[in-house]
Amino acid sequence: MTIAADVKSHEADERQLRIDLAAAFRLAAHFGWHEAVANHFSAAVSADGKRFLVNPRWRHFSMLTASDLLLLDADDTSAMDRPDAPDPSAWSIHSAIHRNIPHARVALHLHPPYATALAGLKDPAIKPIDQNTARFYNRMAIDLSFGGIATEGSEGERIAATIGNHSTVMMGNHGVTVVAATVAEAFDDMYYLERAAQTMVLAYSTGQPLSIMSDDIAEQTAAEWDAYKGASFAHFDEMKRMLDAKDPSYAD
Questions:
Q1: Residue 116: which of 170, 56, 54 has the closest Cα?
Q2: Which of 30, 9, 31, 73 is nearest to 250 (CA)?
Q3: CATH second-level architecture of 16-251?
C-alpha cells in the first residue's frame, strides 16, 4: 500500500469511527441514559490508543454529530488549554483510560438511571438472577473508592486502574463505564448493563428474596453469551438504521 493510500484508509477509518461514536451518543439520548450535558464517550484512533475522539464540552448527546468530536492526545496535557477544551472530568477519565488500557479502544462513561441506582447501594453488584444479569457474572469490576467528581488526574488514573482487564466497571456512588474494542460492542454491553440493572432494581423493589443462580449455572450462562458476539454488531447496525430513518444528521 502506498503512503497516500494508507493515509486515505486511515482517514476513512477515522471517519467511520466518528460516525459510529456519534450514533452511540444519539442512541444514549434515545434510551434516556444521558444526564443533562454531562457524561462522555471516547474512541481511540491511533494504533497505540493514545490519540482519541471525545465529545466536546457541555454539548447535548441528542445533537452531537461526527464532525463535532474532538481529537486529543492522551499524553498532551495542553489539551485543557485549548479554546475548545473538553470537560475536565472527560479529560481526566478518558485520557487515563486511553493512556493505560490498550484493550479499551472505546470507552463509554454514563450515569444511566438503573445502573446509577445500583451504584448507590452498599452492595452494587449485579447478581445472576436471569440471563441478562448473568452476562456480567465475574466479568465486572466494582469500584467502591469514589473520590468526588473526576476533575483531577489522580481520580482518572484510579478509575483506569480499577477497570484493569475488565470491560465493565460499576462505579460506586457514581455511575458505570464500559470499554470495548469497537463502538458496537461497547454500545451492546452498555445496553445490556442497563437492562440488567433495571432487572435488579425491579427485583429488589418487590422486597422478596432474590433467586440467585448457582455459581456453575451463572458461569455457564455468562460464557454462553460469547456465542452471541455477532449480535452486538447486528444490534448496533439495526439501531443506526433506526437513526437513519429518524434523523441521519448524526453522521454529518
A1: 170
A2: 30
A3: 3-Layer(aba) Sandwich (3.40)
Pairwise CA distance, residues 91 & 85, whole Å: 9
Give the C-alpha separation, 251 to 243, whole Å: 10
**E strands, the chain, where?**
40-44, 51-54, 70-73, 106-110, 140-143, 168-171, 175-180
Cell of 202: 425491579
The Cα 38–Cα 31 span in angstroms is: 15
pTM of the model: 0.93
- For cell 445490556, the residue is 192
Give yes or no for a contact between 38 and 52, defined as CB atoms under 8 angstroms apart.
no
Q: How does pLDDT run across 14-58, given as a tens digit for each residue?
A: 999 999 999 999 999 999 999 999 999 999 999 999 999 999 999
Q: 142 and 127 in contact (C-beta within 8 Å)?
A: no
Say how far apart CA 239 and CA 189 lie, in whole Å.
14
